[in-house]
Write a structure and sequence with these properties.
Elements lengths: L8 H11 L3 H13 L10 E5 L7 E5 L3 H16 L14 E5 L2 E5 L20 E7 L6 E9 L2 E9 L14 E6 L9 E7 L7 E7 L2 E8 L4 E3 L10 E3 L3 E5 L1
Parallel strand pairs: 5-14
Antiparallel strand pairs: 1-2, 3-4, 5-9, 6-7, 6-10, 8-9, 10-11, 12-13
Helix pairs in contact: 2-3
Length: about 250
């Protein structure tokens, strides 16, 4: 005879919290979304969208992408709050969207002549990323990703099915492996790419391996653009390049 016993609420809450992504993970994922969504040719193609903590106060994106970015931002925030985390911002007055060096940015507002500029606090985000494109699911097993940055090698590794509370996947904090779906059924778990967070190497090589050998490899020479996401008179000055893709068998 089967007897159903429910788990205590505290145990369930702890399990949910352990699978919830961290603030850094949420910000990294949203930075990748912005990089795909803020390209422009003129300022009339740019619009400001309101955000919530921990993603920032606002973001400047292409008008055609505004609705999709709002939706993705809301999903990421809900993921972050699922584990019980909460935060809030005291935001400055919105500025004006503009297209600078091919990217939509927010030019901060000036309160009055002679007054100081109100700078937002948007970070630089991911300098360069390689998105993995794999047909079918990632099979169970141990995967390694070798990342070479101008000859310097960074080693990353992950086991599928993924664990939401696994240690950082790469041996260099400046490189991050994109891991998706840890709180979902195993068939949805995936290694979706690799991010170069701060360095701006002239040459980037990536190789993906499983226990049988190499699954994919590629080399890129990123074309970095310089921007100031908080406005021309505000720091930081960022160097970022459009993402690349790598087909994984």
């Amino acid at each position: 005879m089967w007897v159903w016993k429910s788990w205590p609420v505290t145990v369930v809450a702890a399990l949910v919290a352990s699978c919830a992504p961290s603030e850094a993970e949420i910000q990294s994922q949203f930075d990748a979304v912005l990089k795909r969504s803020n390209g422009c040719q003129s300022s009339d193609q740019c619009v400001l969208i309101d955000l919530e903590c921990p993603l920032g106060c606002r973001a400047a994106v292409h008008t055609d992408r505004a609705s999709a970015v709002r939706k993705q931002a809301r999903e990421l925030i809900e993921d972050y709050e699922r584990g019980g985390a909460m935060c809030a911002y005291d935001c400055t007055a919105p500025g004006t969207p503009a297209c600078e060096q091919g990217r939509c940015v927010e030019v901060p507002a000036v309160d009055a002549p002679g007054s100081s500029i109100a700078c937002t606090e948007i970070g630089c985000g991911v300098a360069f990323s390689v998105q993995f494109q794999k047909s079918g699911t990632w099979l169970s097993g141990h995967y390694r990703v070798h990342v070479r940055l101008d000859g310097r090698t960074v080693e990353c590794a992950a086991d599928v099915p993924l664990s939401c509370d696994a240690a950082p996947a790469c041996d260099d904090p400046g490189v991050s492996l994109q891991l998706s779906g840890c709180a979902l059924p195993a068939a949805s778990h995936a290694i979706t790419g690799v991010d170069i967070l701060t360095d701006t190497p002239a040459e980037v090589s990536v190789e993906v391996l499983d226990e049988s050998g190499s699954l994919a490899s590629g080399t890129w020479h990123p074309s970095y653009l310089t921007s100031q996401p908080n406005g021309p008179e505000c720091s930081p000055e960022c160097r970022t390049a459009p993402p690349a893709t790598l087909a994984v068998r």
